[in-house]
Amino acid sequence: MSRVLNNVGPMKDETRERVLQAAAELGYVPNALAQQFARRRSGNIGVILPFVPKVHLFSTYYFSEILSGIGETAKRCGYDLLLIFREPDGARDYAKLFRTHKIDACIVLGSENVPEERSALAELKAGGYPFCLVNQRYDDERYETVDADHFAGSKAAVRHLLEQGKLRVAFVNGPEQYSNSADRLEGYRAALADAGISCEEELVYVGNYSRKSGQELAEPIARRIRGGGIDAVFCANDRMAFGLMQGLRERGLEPGEHYALVGYDDSDGSRIISPRLSTVAVPFYEMGSLAAAKLLDAEQRAQAEIAVLPVSFIRRETS
Amino acid sequence: MSRVLNNVGPMKDETRERVLQAAAELGYVPNALAQQFARRRSGNIGVILPFVPKVHLFSTYYFSEILSGIGETAKRCGYDLLLIFREPDGARDYAKLFRTHKIDACIVLGSENVPEERSALAELKAGGYPFCLVNQRYDDERYETVDADHFAGSKAAVRHLLEQGKLRVAFVNGPEQYSNSADRLEGYRAALADAGISCEEELVYVGNYSRKSGQELAEPIARRIRGGGIDAVFCANDRMAFGLMQGLRERGLEPGEHYALVGYDDSDGSRIISPRLSTVAVPFYEMGSLAAAKLLDAEQRAQAEIAVLPVSFIRRETS
DNA sequence: ACTTTTTATGTACACGCGTACATTATGGCA
DNA sequence: TGCCATAATGTACGCGTGTACATAAAAAGT
């Protein structure tokens, strides 16, 4: 029985047929629990998500896309998805998931460079457990990672603004515990450097990727726009751009008119807002899909540790 | 060992301590696979999602919220979340998930009234497997369900429009295979009836809950607005409202000025768009949480089969 | 002190599959 | 026909828990 289903060892076609037919008649389905136990593999791939009850700290768009990508590949490889919400109180015993054999591999979303997280990941690596980070790098540790080229994306966005004659480009970045924040800052600086413009630190603002944090920066930025110190803003994600746009609008400043604006993520909102937001498209679906493939797909596993997928600037109406 | 951890049977405190300490020293962690096998329970609750690769047929907001709600309650009850993407080719053998013991209970999201789905759910019920629908009712079958009061929500939205003096209210509904579409249509009709206005069938349009479908209705609706046949539109979700708003804007018609507009879902977008969209807030998080509680929580299980949660109209700038 | 009840611990087996190994059929070849 | 190699099938055991039952220790009652 086990042999026919798993096609192990030689056997007569006729025997296989007979067994299969008998199984069908009896309505036999293998007990996944027993299989997992006997194989000592759960067949589950864990996806670790930030715990955000009723609060959209991260773009839901972001996670839906990545999850879909992971799900598609996992299904193709015969794995199921086990969703794991990170504990709110900072307990991040990812390794325990492996020690209890709940998962065979895991993908960490929304990883951030803080001590608890670093030690949790180090423990995974030390245990030899297969895992993959998405959209976060730790430069001092070589973890399996799928990232996007946020340096190039930011550089392209800022270069575009400069090409529009906007030479006073402000930058609203996200928190530094995310490597992609640092990447974007570098991209911003590189674009300025290429244009022979010195990067002024007072033009770099920091939010927390939430809409609210963008809105809260409207006051100081509005002042600078009016004073001629800023003629364009590049936001590290769309949500902050939305908040900023709203805050500036309340102060009588319109994007595309009084200032140029570029966001990041190509989220749903960037298309429905008006004027439509220029932004940078990130292949979240593909990133999720690749992360899963790296863990599950034998062919992919030989690839380089850190995959960096290309992004693309999308010009719309705010720039 | 098993007894101390599961606290079964009487035992001396000192013995418990000794065992626990020994376990700690040896770094023992129970093998979840063996536990599941021995208990013949997976400890997983399945969440069935529509398969939407790279296409946002449903609002991602909707699913993120529900998932978070389910996750919170599942964790509280000691269950894990197994994500199951519905097969694209119409194969919906939900019962197999139970027969293989992959899941102990399941929550069906995005269920739709089509034959394959009906038979899949009937099989679940026949097998006595615990499951819960969210946001979809089948009136001829009494399935465990968590729904929202879309009748009341729609009625409130339309009544609001009527109170604004908008007496020619068009309705852009979703596909009829969703019970909440029917609910909203009834709410729309009831509001009109209460105001003594007859419901004209040509004012009822049908989209598919996508932004595109809303946009595609802009042409006929624009004509009627110009002709005075429509002075307000109620859309069955925000996404269609966004599309419609965009389509009408391209035709020179502004919400809040040439026509009033109300959406549904209170999605993120409704707050970032301008003018900000009047809409109906649905407690998605609570719905997910309740659905999980109904399946997992012993106390909740005695509740009525169909829970209907309240919604609330939110007036913003488009009405 | 002895029995009876209660409490605590020891022990063995079942759960349902995968798989290594033993056994038996089959076919090729001299 | 006999012999060996190979293909096919039969068989038994292990995986690591939970748990029913047996046994031993402690407590309570006479």
Can you tell me about this structure?
- The structure is a homodimer.
- By secondary structure, chain A is α/β, with parallel strands linked by helices.
- Chain A has helices at about 1-5, 15-25, 30-40, 60-75, 95-100, 115-125, 150-165, 180-195, 210-215, 220-225, 240-250, 270, 285-295; strands spanning about 45-50, 80-85, 105-110, 130-135, 145-150, 170-175, 205, 230-235, 260, 280, 305-310, 310-315.
- In chain A, strands 2-1-3-4-5-11 form a six-stranded parallel sheet, covered by helices on one side. Chain A has a four-stranded parallel sheet with strand order 7-6-8-9.
- In chain A, strand 3, helix 6 (about 115-125) and strand 4 form a beta-alpha-beta unit.
- The radius of gyration of chain A is 24 Å and the shape is elongated.
- The model of chain A has no long low-confidence stretch (mean pLDDT about 90).
- At the A-B interface, helix 3, helix 4, strand 2, helix 11 and helix 12 of A face helix 3, helix 4, strand 2, helix 11 and helix 12 of B.
- Chain A binds a DNA duplex (30 and 30 nucleotides) through helix 1 and helix 3.
Secondary structure topology:
The structure is a homodimer of 319-residue chains.
Chain A: H1 2-6, H2 13-26, H3 32-39, E1 44-49, H4 60-76, E2 80-85, H5 94-99, E3 105-108, H6 115-127, E4 131-134, E5 145-148, H7 150-163, E6 169-173, H8 179-194, E7 204-206, H9 211-216, H10 218-226, E8 232-235, H11 238-250, E9 260-262, H12 268-272, E10 279-281, H13 284-296, E11 306-309, E12 312-314
Parallel strand pairs in A: 1-2, 1-3, 3-4, 4-5, 5-11, 6-7, 6-8, 8-9
Antiparallel strand pairs in A: 10-12
Chain A binds a DNA duplex (30 and 30 nucleotides) through helix 1 and helix 3.
